[in-house]
Amino acid sequence: STPSGRTSARPVARGYSQRVLRRGVIIGAAVAAIIATAPASAAERPVIPPAGHTQVMVGQDVATLRAYSEAMGGGYQPAGVMDYLFLEAEPDALRRRLDKLRAEWDAHYPQADVQFGMTLGRSPFWSTIFGDYGAPGTLEVVSGAYDDRIDVIAEWLNAQPQRTFQLRIGYEFDLPGGQWGPPALYRQAYRYVVDHLRRRGVSNALYVWHSAGAQFKTTDYSGLVSTLGTLDRTPGHEADPLLEAMANTLRTAGQVLGNGGDLAPIRDFFPGRDYVDLFGISYWDDAFGGGRSSERARAIYRQRTQEILDEAKQLGLPLMLAETTPVYIGFDAGEESVTWLQRWFELIERNDIRVASLIVPDWPSLSGGVWGQAYWNGFWPDARVANFAGPRELWRSKLAEDRYGGRTVCVTPRRAVTIRLPRVANTRIRFVRVRTAGRSVLIRRGDRRSIRVPLGRTSAPRVTVWVRVALTDRRTGRRSNRLLRRSVSTCSKSVRLLG
pTM, whole model, 2 decimals? Predict the structure, then answer.
């Protein structure tokens, strides 16, 4: 109390301020925690190529990428590289593999984005082919059995904020009719992975919903019709009219039934717009089976591909060619190979595909020759686009176009440049003043023939260096200045990014 009997307001105000401050700290900490665990906002998310532009990825393993870069020649780099993530791998093995890939890409493709085909554990389809059948891994995903693996992936992605990663989660979800289980289970597992990564703060990933596309879906009319097309070995492909009639009949029946001739339409597997950044499709321009189809049979495959892309457009999704390769013919078949590649680019430009992925190995030589086994009937060919003159010429010319982002980027910045100083008879240099990029440096250390000028950090491709050399005549003592102007590159090593 004050001498007058009134209570002082100062201690009360001070106590009130302290309580407000404590509450502010608590609220601020809570907000920070919420922000740290919330999904990345639209402003923080990596950018999808805009309309009229296509990013080109190549892959899909380390050896293939090295061979591709060598064949393309020095100074070229892919804009994006492809590989795979196996969620069923043990956490330590997964971490070692990821670290090995990072070291490889940091050394050879520092500017490239990365695309991963990501499993959802075991796929009954592929495990059966390779003799290890089991239940779909999606059951384990949603039970939390793979949380430690997802944590490893999140930590690895977060350590590389400079890169954008495209994750094809549960890729080719509808092969054959649902390789990761029924639609509801797939949707649940896909969302589970995305939610987990977001809770771990991953903000540099794009999530891709990837369909197996025509024929490999097997549940639509193209599954039967396209497969029969590969078995037609008659002279002149006499089965073509029958195949076309079958396709039209099944398509019409599907329209009457409301499923478009597809017993498992892609919309049944749709995880929701909040979980999908891009819709991907596999595209081979032919069906798997008894061998290369006729042109009319392949036209049925292309029509079904377009129908699936149109379904994705109706869902409001940007499009991606997620896995493509020139099946049966490869890139060593002369004019046929060039035609395949021309149609690939036409498909991109007709549908405004935002990301296009081309798998470019010599398939029969991969994985101990498994892709060259007789049961594939030559489906997986030599797809080295950069090794054969016709396809390589078309590939380079198209990727240099504005749509595909052909551009030169600096991979090794120049930190300093050497400037040679003028030689003037009977003079000595009193000092040198250098100005570049808004910085001025005074150098006083006696006579010299050249100076090393630091360039600092700049995004400009070239900078101008101004050098004022202060001279003194050794005989008369007269002072003079020489002004030099040099335009210098800020990059010591650049590469051409294709796509």
Answer: 0.75
Q: Which stretches of 75-231 are assigned E, i.e. beta strand? A: 76-78, 80-85, 113-118, 165-169, 205-211
Mean pLDDT of 427-438: 76
Round the CA-based radius of gyration of the chain to a whole number and report it: 31
Q: How many CB atoms lie within 10 A of CB 65?
A: 24
Q: How many other β-carbons are positioned within 10 Å of the β-carbon of residue 75?
A: 10
| CA terminus-to-terminus distance, the chain | 78
Tell me the two tokens of residue 287.
Answer: 């069906």
Structure tokens of 301?
């495959």
Closest C-alpha among 412, 419, 429, 499 to residue 454:
419
Contact 443, 467 (CB under 8 A): no
* CA distances to 63, 81, 331, 366 from 392, in Å: 19, 18, 9, 21
Q: Are 82 and 359 in contact (CB under 8 A)?
A: yes
Q: Backbone dihedral region of 97: left (phi > 0), alpha (psi from -120 to 50 degrees) or beta?
A: alpha
Tell me: cis bond preceding 179? Omega within 30 of 0 counts: no
How far is the C-alpha of 285 from the C-alpha of 214, rounded, in Å? Answer: 9
Per-residue model confidence as pLDDT tens digits over 277-336: 999 999 999 999 889 999 999 999 999 999 999 999 999 999 999 999 999 999 999 999
Cβ atoms of 337 and 388 closer than 8 Å: yes
The contacts of residue 323 (CB under 8 Å, 6+ apart) are 60, 117, 171, 172, 210, 280, 282, 283, 357, 359
